[in-house]
């Protein structure tokens, strides 16, 4: 009987340890102060109709010394700097941003759209953009590291 109780206890513990909380749980929230700052692109992955690619280094970074970045300012302006050469030549795109719940919306500019914040810490930010095209649902996910 002791073995049966011990086995049931182990199975219950194992089952509970497999349950995880996702970042879309109702308890996840952040303030505008937490997300403002400069965020350097680090990783990316994609999903097509729910099938995810492997996470990879952000393919837009032309040089390790000049990573592309996204800057959200306290005055609700944004700056995206896209380095397009290994010599750190760049293009700047500016726009405005707003926050509603866990969604950041960029108005105007190349990054126009809504981005769901999946996770945010003092050193990293993960966002997703979901869109549909020709019967497919795409999710682009980007991981950033805090640059300042």
Please, could you describe this protein's structure?
The relative contact order is 0.19. The protein has helices at 2-17, 32-35, and strands at residues 37-48, 51-52, 56-57, 69-72, 77-83, 90-100, 103-107, 113-120, 124-133, 136-146. With 148 residues, it is mainly beta. It contains two helices and ten strands; from the N terminus they run ααββββββββββ. A hairpin with a 5-residue loop joins β7 (103-107) and β8. Helices cover 14% and strands 49% of the residues. The chain has an eight-stranded antiparallel barrel with strand order 1-4-5-6-7-8-9-10. The longest helix has 16 residues, at 2-17. Keywords: Signal. This is Lipocalin-like domain-containing protein. Residues 1-22 form the signal peptide.
Strand and helix map with partners:
Blueprint: H1 2-17, H2 32-35, E1 37-48, E2 51-52, E3 56-57, E4 69-72, E5 77-83, E6 90-100, E7 103-107, E8 113-120, E9 124-133, E10 136-146
Q: What helical percentage do the residues reach?
A: 10-25%
Return the CATH class of one domain: Mainly Beta
The largest sheet, given as strand count, sense and whether it forms a barrel, is:
8 strands, antiparallel, barrel
Which parts are unreliable, with pLDDT below 50 for 5 consecutive residues or more?
Answer: 1-25
Strand order of the largest sheet: 1-4-5-6-7-8-9-10
Structural class: mainly beta
Rg, alpha carbons: 20 Å
The count of DSSP E runs of length 2 or more, i.e. the number of strands, is 10
CATH topology name of one domain: Lipocalin
Order of helices and strands: HHEEEEEEEEEE
The quaternary structure here is single chain
């Amino acid at each position: 009987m002791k073995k049966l109780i011990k086995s049931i206890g182990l199975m219950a513990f194992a089952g509970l340890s497999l349950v995880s909380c996702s970042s879309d749980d109702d308890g996840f929230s952040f303030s505008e102060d937490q997300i403002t700052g400069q965020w350097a692109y680090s990783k990316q992955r994609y999903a097509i109709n729910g099938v995810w690619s492997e996470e990879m280094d952000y393919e837009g970074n032309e040089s390790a010394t000049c990573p592309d970045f996204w800057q959200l300012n306290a005055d609700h302006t944004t700056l995206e700097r896209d380095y397009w050469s290994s010599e750190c030549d760049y293009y700047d795109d500016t726009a405005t941003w707003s926050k509603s719940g866990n969604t950041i919306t960029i108005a105007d500019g190349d990054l126009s759209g809504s981005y769901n914040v999946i996770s945010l810490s003092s050193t990293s930010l993960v966002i997703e953009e979901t869109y549909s095209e020709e019967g497919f649902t795409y999710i682009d996910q980007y991981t950033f590291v805090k640059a300042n």
